[in-house]
Amino acid sequence: MDQVLSQQEIDSLLNAYDSGELDEEVIDEEQNDESQAKPYDFRRPTRLSKEYINTLHMIFEDFAKMSGNVLSNILRTNLDMQLASIEQISYDEFIHSIPRVTLIGMFKAAPLKGSHMIEINPQLCMTLVELLCGGADLESNRKNQPPLDKNGFTDIELSLLDEVMSEFSKILQSVWKEVLTLDVELESLETNPQLLQSLSPNEPVVLATFTVQLFGVSTFINLCIPYVSFEGILDKLSLHNWFDSSQELSEDDQSELKHGLNAIDLPMEVALGNTQMDLADFLKLEPGDVIKLDSKISSPLDTYIEDRPFYWVKPGKKNGQFAIELLSKIEGEEE
Which residues form the Flagellar motor switch protein FliN-like C-terminal domain (predicted)? Predict the structure, then answer.
């Protein structure tokens, strides 16, 4: 706070100025040297430095990649998820930026304080529900569909979406592993953000927004983390302390990495053959029609792993189920 002058001191300064003993330019220079007040928006508090945000950027990018892969496997269709932005805003701003009825997963991430919140908008939620219920080609129906305005979710819809939200707990636990070990658990599903009382309106939060591309439609998923969650781990968010490129993996880390890689599910497909037909013939197809393929019964079939040809196989049956016998590896493919 600036020093408060007495009336006698003020009179002395005025008299010195009038008599020329005090130079006006000196006063101006002293005023210019003083620190200038800077505006501060209490509704948009900035707590984390650029270095910490850069670390979070890498964590959230990993979250987007893993989420995209996991959701693609669950839904059996291509889903692309990318980090769009990271903002430091107030909790009230976050609540007012999302639909009045939406899906919010509340996650407890011990030992961190506060709750992680993942918000999925209703339009994406209903697409997920349709795919989980066996929907296949929804692309033509989704591109021209107007934004969905739901009044609520049914118990069946929430039950299906709970399975999707539960996958995020595993992903959050995995992407934070380089910083610290978290025990992430889905506590509840909320559909009315206005009724959430987990934080005060002016509480600062970090909001990560992700774009989701599905069937040609772009939607959003939001990850909201209160600033209080970072208070005890700011030193671990430093890039210098997060990883050291010269540090080798310990035997335990190598064993755990190998165990994690061995547990990854890889889609395997066997192609019976290919054929070509005119559109007119295709439109005339009916149940019971026979389509001739370009492969012979005696010829081995191609087996694809992650859409790459890997093995020649022979089809057959074992224990009453279809099976394949590996014959040889396709030349030119690396394991």
Answer: 261-330
At 212, phi and psi to the nearest 5? -120, 120
For the chain, helix (H) and strand (E) counts, in that order, are 10, 10
Q: Quote the crossing angle between the two packed helices 155-175 and 50-75, to the nearest 10°.
A: 130
CATH of 50-262, one of 3.30.420.10, 3.40.1550.10, 3.30.1360.120, 3.30.1660.10: 3.40.1550.10
Which residues, in sequence order, are bridge partners of residue 308?
Answer: 305
User: What topology does CATH give the domain 268-329?
Assistant: Surface presentation of antigens (SPOA) (2.30.330)
Question: Comparing C-alpha atoms, which of 192, 196, 173, 195 is closest to residue 184?
Answer: 173
Per-residue pLDDT of the chain in tens (335 residues, 90 and over written 9): 445 555 566 667 766 766 666 555 555 555 555 456 656 555 555 577 888 888 899 999 999 999 999 998 888 888 899 999 999 999 999 998 898 899 999 999 998 888 899 999 998 999 899 888 877 655 555 555 545 556 778 999 999 999 999 999 999 999 988 888 889 999 999 999 888 877 888 889 999 999 999 888 889 999 999 998 888 788 777 766 655 544 566 677 777 778 777 777 778 888 888 888 888 888 988 998 888 888 887 888 888 887 788 888 888 888 888 888 888 888 765 55
The total of other beta-carbon atoms located within 10 Å of residue 6's CB is 8
Question: Strand, coil or helix: what is 9?
Answer: helix
Note the residue count of the chain.
Answer: 335
- Lay out the sheet containing 301-305: strands in order across: 268-271, 301-305, 308-318, 321-329
